[in-house]
Amino acid sequence: MAEVNATLAASANASVNGSNLASTGILVATREGIIVAYTGLIVMALLPIVIGSFRSVVHNNKASSRKDGKKEDLDIMSAKDAAMFPLVASCALFGLYIVFKFVGKEYVNLLLNVYIFCVSSFSFSRVIGLVVKPCLPSCIPRTSYYFVALLLGSKKKRAFLKRLQEVERIEQESSSLDVANETEVETTSQSDKEKKDSLEGIWADAEVDIIDIGCFVLALAFGGWYLWKKHWVANNLLALSFAVNGIEMISLDTVQNGVILLGGLFLYDIFWVFGTDVMVTVAKLFDAPIKLVFPMDFLEHGLFAKNFALLGLGDIVIPGVFIALMLRYDRRRSPSGKLYFSMTFLAYFLGLLTTVLVMHYFKHAQPALLYLVPACLGFPLLTALICGDLKDMLRFQDHPAETEDSKKKE
Fold first, then answer.
1. Residue 315 catalytic?
2. What is the CA 204 to chain-centroid distance, rounded?
3. Is 178 considered catalytic here?
4. Where are the alpha helices (H) located in 65-146, listed in sequence order?
5. Phi, psi of 144 (to 5 degrees)
6. Model's pTM, two decimal places?
7. Is pLDDT larger for residue 342 or for residue 273?
8. Greater confidence, 386 or 174?
9. Is residue 189 scored above 80 in pLDDT?
10. Which contacts of 201-205 are long-range, i.e. CB under 8 A and separated by 24 or more positions?
11. Would you give the end-to-end CA distance of the chain in angstroms?
């Protein structure tokens, strides 16, 4: 999750950027080309929100149902985190602006692209796995491998494998006992449990199979393609993978935290777009896959087009995390519920469409969250007020126990 948060902080610095459109030739783009570009951006923005939201339900349920009670896989954003995020994003944005002013953009972008190449390889391989694994036949071997064992020396590796065999023996003995012997399961030796827990702490998150390895190699190839050619298709594939992973893995936990986060970034976006030239400058100079692009001359030049419209990932992931929360709230109320998710998703679409129309009309950079935040907060809250669910929505918590623990730590 560290890589997702780092990328999210950077992507929050790029809004729908009208000035960049003008500088790349919007005045000479055809009407059809503009419509195709804007339509492509809107469709690409909606896609990761849908996928990431439904994946967040699976991810949160899986983490909540762990038998050992651990939730380290969940990155729950507290009220303090939500309040601090606009400040952190502002510091990151202004820091990049200063660096670009005093250091050549080629060196800065080279360093950032190397970092993002490493991060995107894991992010994109995960998304490829989500698409590929369900489509592959069961005859393909799914043997698991453990990176920890590969990194240890021969003696430590033998000790690791021996402990792994002990864990497998414990699990086999436990599964072989029938319901009548439940008391015997509970009286399993404490030493065996401690061995199992200690081993799980080492390799639980490092287990991969041959398909995961293949997906990672493919992701490396796409990352290399981006570094070599900087092609807009490669950029979009990597950016979409960031968006899907961010929406899936970041949990707001409560509606109040979502209001704090979106409200703070609402002010952040307005200030940095209308108050200064910082965001526009950074968005132009920052050459990395933290934004979606689509060529306005696609009809004339196809895949080799050069005149791009762009949309920052921050304008997708930030509202997308809140939309995912609405879907989890729906599913808490009903296993097939989608009312508040649908209303918030519709609000996002209308807000993004409004942003594009205003941007095109004024030919100036627009803070997308200026339109997205009121829509994404207003639609579900108003719907809840009409349906009589407002109090229930405001009391909703994804993980109450985890939230209490975080408050005690603070």
1. yes
2. 22
3. no
4. 79-102, 105-132
5. -90, 145
6. 0.78
7. 342
8. 386
9. no
10. 202/148, 202/160, 203/146, 203/147, 203/148, 203/149, 203/164, 205/73
11. 21
